[in-house]
Amino acid sequence: MLYFTNTQTLFTPLNSKTSNNSGSLSSDDDSLEDLLTSLSTSFINVNAEELDDLIINVLRRIVMLLGVDRSTIAQFDKTNGLMRFSHSWAVPGIKPLPPAIDEENYPYLARTIRAGQNLILESLENLPDNALVDRRFAHEVGLKSVAIVPLMAGGTGLGFLSIGALTKPRRWPEKLVNKLTLIGEVFANALLRARSEFRLKNDLARNRTMRKKMQAETAIWREQALNQTGMSELVGDSPAITRLLKQVEQVARTDSTVLLLGETGTGKDLIAQMIHEHSRRSARPLVRVNCAALPESLIESELFGHEKGAFTGAVSRRSGRFEAASEGTIILDEIGELPIELQPKLLHILQTGEFNRLGSTTTHKSNARVIASTNRNIDAMVASGSFREDLYYRLGVFPIILPPLRQRKSDIPLLVAYFIEKLGPKLGKPSMTISPEQIEILANYHWPGNIRELENIIERSMILSSDNRLRIELLTTPSRTSAYPQTSSSIAESIADYEPRTLEQVQRDYIEAICVRCNWKIAGPDSASEILDINPSTLRSRISKLGINRP
């Protein structure tokens, strides 16, 4: 509320005539006539930012010209039934009004004003018997007599203008009331115009905000479209794929968080996309974030956005992926690569749906559905302390383990046919065929790179084939081991083509290969003990027992 109780002159009155509380008609009438003349020009072109000061000036002049104690503008608040005292000026020593009061404190006054009628009281005893509540309130604020005129503009009652005498009663001649009514109309039109101006500015500001958000979302969606693999459906009919599709169908129609686990190349991106496309959020954005592809210094900004100046290079405000994915789905690829420092912030948005842009204390909300994926052994990472246990449980509401290709070899013929059809036009070989013997070669391979490796082998073999018969060309590379833990059956399949060896020999060679791959790092993240899923001290003991020597 704008409230002044000092007598500082904000601008010089047009004349120095004042009236006393006896209500001298000629003095009051002449003074207000001059004030009306001033208002007719002052309020025509005033902008909304200057209106408050101008209204306070006029209220001060009314008090000084009429010799009263306080003049006030009150406005109806449609949202909560309150009367808000928006502007007021009083002589020194007068107790300020509260910022707002409930209409229940003055029901008679509220009905009268809303009906567009004046309420002129030379004494509070003139209030009717059905206005006891209003009389009690008037005594509480110290009124002796009051002139209240409604603020009407465009057929709408905005509130009222009140001129009050608190030290001693006074008269309110009819011509004086008429002048106050005209002043009230000037106030009402100015306030209504200011409301429209503020509403227009707010709408323009919202439009600018929405336009920036849409531009950010469009850039993200365009990036996602360029990164699509082109595979629109899951290929295969093996029991493993049947179980996988059943899980996708069950979880897709919910908003539950999903954690996709599986080796590299098993199709985690495709499954995440299928979950989104079969959900009720399918018409909303699908946003992807590869946690492994971003520098640690930029991941927080990428996920949650940043304010201008939040860091070097932040030349403007930028929305994050969670904000862009609100109402839709966000896919967090390689969640196991998320720095430990950022994991609490991800946990917070999963729990509350709230986040802060980098460099800001303002809280924003996002109800994006989260689908996370990783080829890392999250259990081992939790045990080693490189991944928060509470975040793991929050992400793993519905875990889905994608089967490696070696566990669904019956799908290989279907996948080969799919890739031949997909790659043929691009390679200029649209009618290639493959023999059962070549399929057998593929079925006997251990597929450390899974579907992605199969597609690459088919493409390379198509390039090298001189006619329309596809001849498989496998690369003779050392066996690779995924960071995602292999089952005993998958290990057996991986060494099926090797010559027989003792169990101790297999253990020694396998442990040594893992140690070499990890650069002989025994404990901690990305260590040999993490991949082998055994205690570091146990691994050291096993290395010593098997006679493995570090070069």
Q: What helical percentage do the residues reach? A: 40-55%
What is the count of DSSP helices, taking H or I runs of 4+ residues? 19
Structural class: alpha/beta
Oligomer, anyone?
single chain
Stretches with pLDDT under 50, minimum 5 residues? 1-25, 224-232, 476-498
Notes on the protein architecture:
- This protein is of the alpha/beta class and 551 residues long.
- It has 4 domains: 2-198, Beta-Lactamase (2-Layer Sandwich), CATH 3.30.450; 227-401, Rossmann fold (3-Layer(aba) Sandwich); 405-470, Orthogonal Bundle (Helicase, Ruva Protein, domain 3), CATH 1.10.8; 499-545, Orthogonal Bundle (Arc Repressor Mutant, subunit A).
- The protein contains 19 helices and 18 strands.
- The protein has helices spanning 25-42, 48-66, 107-114, 132-140, 174-226, 239-252, 268-277, 296-304, 321-324, 343-352, 378-384, 389-395, 412-427, 436-443, 450-464, 488-494, 503-517, 528-532, 536-545; strands at 2-4, 70-77, 82-90, 100-102, 119-121, 145-153, 156-165, 258-261, 286-290, 305-306, 318-319, 329-333, 354-356, 363-365, 369-374, 398-401, 433-434, 469-470.
- The strands form 5 sheets. Strands 1, 2, 3, 4, 5, 6 and 7 form a 7-stranded mixed beta sheet that branches. A 5-stranded parallel beta sheet has the order 9-12-15-8-16.
- Helix 1 (25-42) runs parallel beside helix 5 (174-226).
